[in-house]
Amino acid sequence: MIDTHSHIYLEAFDQDRSETIARAKNAGVTRILLPNIDASSIDDMISCESNFPDICSAMMGLHPTSVKADYKEQLAIVEQWLGKRNFVGIGEIGMDLYWDKTFIEEQKVVLSQQLKWACEMDLPVVIHTRNAFPEIFEVFNQVYDSRLRGVFHSFSGTMEDARRILEMPGFYLGINGVVTFKNSTLPSILEQIGIGRILLETDAPYLTPVPYRGKRNEPAYLSFTRDKLAEVFKITLAEVEKITSLNAETLFKL
């Protein structure tokens, strides 16, 4: 299995990062992709990748909740890093209007710029969307280019949102522990769209699946999301692993 979205470089794992990775490998996780947040997280992310190069791969991007008045300086740092070395993707980028709408226009500008870089550099994007599907689609309508590909991470939209995403041939839906939550509408949506364009992810340390909901999430818990998807799609665990891993390898050119 490939955990396509995990923040194991954060402080939450400072005491047991090596053990966390060992547990992930024991659970069958072969690769962990690390999305960046902003300038403050880069050193820890790069250090995590260099300490565990056999399993961790870093991305570069500016997270929407970090888009503030200094967004131009933050974007310049992202651009410098993208020019300095290889990353598996541009992320985590997108829009988040859940907590604060103060910088909505700046979030659009930042997303638009990073989508353009992704096209120019032939890199996939990892899209964070919270209370912002209409606004994100508006930006996509302005800058969409057939070279654009990526994943809508932690997908939690409607059936219509899912269809709209999947109309773009290079895009996937990232599914994590939310699918195991008791009142999640995701299973019924996924049942209708099939497993063809699904990626597994944890978003560790967040969004821990049942039965560990409320505790810290970690890549080893990817197996609970896999198990739930096997149940939803009525296929074997091995088939879920094979399809989602192939999707991740294709998208991120692993």
Q: Element order, helices and strands?
A: EHEHEHEHEHEHEHEHH
How many helices does DSSP assign?
9
CATH H-level superfamily: Metal-dependent hydrolases
The CATH class assignment is: Alpha Beta
Across the major sheet, the strand order is 4-5-6-7-8
Residue fraction in strands: 5-15%
Largest sheet properties: 5 strands, parallel
Characterization of this structure:
The chain has 254 residues and is of the alpha/beta class. The chain has helices at 17-26, 42-51, 71-84, 104-121, 133-143, 159-166, 186-193, 222-233, 237-252; strands at 2-3, 31-34, 56-58, 90-96, 125-130, 150-152, 171-175, 198-200. The chain has a single domain (2-252), classed as Metal-dependent hydrolases (TIM Barrel). It is built from nine helices and eight strands. The strands form two sheets. The protein has a five-stranded parallel β-sheet with strand order 4-5-6-7-8, sandwiched between helices. It has a three-stranded parallel β-sheet with strand order 1-2-3. β5 (125-130), α5 (133-143) and β6 form a beta-alpha-beta unit. α3 packs parallel to α4 (104-121). The longest helix is centred in the middle third of the chain and has 18 residues, at 104-121.
